[in-house]
Amino acid sequence: MARLVVAACSGELTRAPNVVGQLWVAVSVSRANDGAPVTGLGAGNFRIAAQLGAFGDFSIDQVGEWSWEPGDTEAAGCYLLRLGWRYDPDLLDPRPATGDPFVPGMSYVLGVQARTFDNHHPPRVVDQGQTIVRVISLGA
After folding, report:
1. How far apart are alpha carbons 25 and 18 in whole angstroms?
2. Residue-by-residue pLDDT tens, the chain, 140 positions
3. Which of 79, 91, 100, 121 fits a 20 to 30 Å CA distance from 37?
4. CA 132, 133, 137 angle in degrees (round to 5)?
5. First-to-last CA distance in the chain?
6. Phi, psi (deg, nearest 5) at residue 34
7. Quick count: other Cβ atoms within 10 Å of Cβ 7?
8. CA-CA distances (angstroms) from residue 32 to 6, 43, 53?
9. How many Å apart are CA 105 and CA 129, to the nearest integer?
């Protein structure tokens, strides 16, 4: 198994409107042996770990990959993950009025893992790496 280098930071926008119930994390994934970007990843290649698992769970709702400038023709191995919240009715009933834990100004510490898989059935992990990031929600 090869190692991936994963770096992450907040992807929250400071001037554009953010969406309530979503948290954004920017992630770079490259190969440890040569630094080459790992391109073509989707939501199934990422996992999130967090301390807020008592009443639900984070979900990776969308993954977008950036391209290198100029021309935006070459995938960069840099991704923007849109995180959502899946409320667990078995753990908290009735559902809280807010429906999600993303409170504007609140800090969230997240583990971010990136993995690649082979094409066996079931797929096996080929490469992996992880990091930890602190994000402050700006959703309002």
Report:
1. 13
2. 689 999 999 988 776 555 556 789 999 999 999 999 999 999 999 999 987 655 667 889 999 999 999 888 899 999 999 998 776 666 655 555 555 567 778 888 999 999 999 998 899 999 999 999 998 887 65
3. 121
4. 150
5. 42
6. -140, 0
7. 14
8. 9, 21, 31
9. 29
